[in-house]
Amino acid sequence: MLQGKCLYLDILPTYETFYLFPDGNDLVYASRFPRKGAHTGCYEKKHFDIKEINETSERKLEPPNRTDSIECQAIYSAKLIWCREHSKEMVGKTYFVIARGSGTHVEVYETEDLKGMLACYPIHWFENYDSPEEPVFFEQMKLF
To answer: What Å distances lie between residue 103 and 24, 88, 90, CA to CA?
Structure first.
């Protein structure tokens, strides 16, 4: 992917880096976004200080949806194997989880007494679901 700064203030702001998309030998489309369709115009290459950027994604792909079936309202311990960028420090640790509702997501807790919920994640982000030797069920209080 090409990026560059415009050298002439009368064409585009010189302090801003633009994504550049080639159009022939000596023209480029300039865009503030990494999408050609969002370009601000077509300009000659000589008006830009061009640098080629190699973007390699280190981000791991989300695991595929599995058909894990765990019993709703039962407490399990499970290892978190994947999550989004904002919670990467949680990956690799074992948590106490409990499935609610349709059973596609689990609530995540650090302790078995289920105090202070940390998050709610899809069940396929976890592995090694271990239930306690004595099944512990959590009863949900109904208001109506």
So the answer is: 54, 24, 21
Strand order in the sheet with 75-80: 119-122, 105-109, 94-99, 75-80, 126-130
Q: For residue 27, give the nearest of 49, 6, 54, 47 by alpha carbon.
A: 47
CB 15 within 8 A of CB 25: no
Q: What is the largest CA-CA distance in the chain?
A: 75
CA distance 52 to 13: 20
- Distance, CA of 23 to CA of 126 (rounded, Å): 47
- Strand partners for 3: 19, 51
What is the spatial distance between Cα 27 and Cα 44, in angstroms, rounded to a whole number? Answer: 4
From the list 25, 18, 24, the residue with the least C-alpha distance to 39 is: 18
User: What pLDDT digit, counting tens, does each position of 60-99 carry?
Assistant: 667 777 666 788 888 889 999 988 777 788 889 999 999 8
How sure is the predictor about 58, in pLDDT bands with cuts at 50, 70 and 90? low
Q: What is the pTM of this model?
A: 0.52
